[in-house]
Structure prediction request, 364 residues.
Amino acid sequence: MQGETLKTLVEHALAAIAVADFPTLEELRISLLGKNGKVTALLKSLGGMEPEARKAAGAEINAAKTRIAEALAERRAGLEAESLAARLAAERIDVTAPPRPAPRGAIHPLSRTQEELAAIFSAMGFIIAEGPDIETDWYNFSALNIPAHHPARAMMDTFYLRAPETARPPVLRTHTSPVQIRTMLDWALDEGLKDQPGPIRIIVPGRTFRADHDATHSPMFHQCEGLVIGHDITLAHLKGCLIDFLRAYFDVPQLPVRLRASYFPFTEPSMEVDIGWNRQTGQIGEGTDWLEIAGSGMVHSNVLANCGIDPRRFQGFAFGVGLERLTMLKHGINDLRLFYESDVRWLRHYGVSPLAPASLHEGL
Ligand code: DAH
Prediction:
């Protein structure tokens, strides 16, 4: 009697297992082998039997349990293989299919120049710093060693914002140099860095503003500032850094670069940076003419002191370049106003594919 019941139980169980899906399989496992399962109940019933009968029945029930457990495991493995196969089929990538549709927009040439500068300078260990477009008089001028009424302020046709009579009006920053001050102050104020200073190495690409408008000036334009501060930074570092940068950016490995003595209030000595070109043809790196491309110098000790940095212990160099100018020279664009006219034909022509990464630092 016992044998018959067990046999039917096993047959039914195996038949059900053979066609079960994942949830049903789990239900079957519980109802057969679980704590209150049928096979478990049979095993429990052994306790009340005579020793002889228990031995025979015990062997049978255990054999049945093993078969069922094996069938459950086998079905589970089968289902898992099936679902994996289904996933692989569904997620298959057809590498012969056409790529994404060509992007319809293009990266603006100025954004591209910023990306290229970021690529070149990050390969030299620089990070990107930012500051606000609206600055205080102190950050934009005074801290940079340009005191009120100093004639150097007249070099920049500043946009002032409205302010109460008594206060100095805020300005639309006339250059990216105030971010030098912001960065050095943060650095000097961080007590942890004072004793164990890591060097400052930043570039600051960003918008700048001056009351100017013609073919080579726009009231809003872009600059990129650079600043390096450390214990043993010399003019040789400035020179090497700018030469490497200009050669990488213009992709002219032997580009002639010349430093020419100049004046900026926030650097001493100050230098204008010229590159060799041919004025007639516009060819960069050819010919015998020089073209001014950047301002630079060793950071003035007053500027360091204004930021709480001891000029006897630290020194550094800074530079500033105009992004429109860099872009115009590289791509032969002759009117700066075109950058901002949003003429789609022009943007298509001078824009670049958003899918092409800027990797100029690998170019040399
Ligand atoms: N801030 C200057 C300008 O806008 C450019 C410049 C010159 C920046 C020399 C510098 C520098 O950092 O060292 O005309």
Summary: The chain has two domains: 2-90, 109-362. The chain has a mean pLDDT of 90.
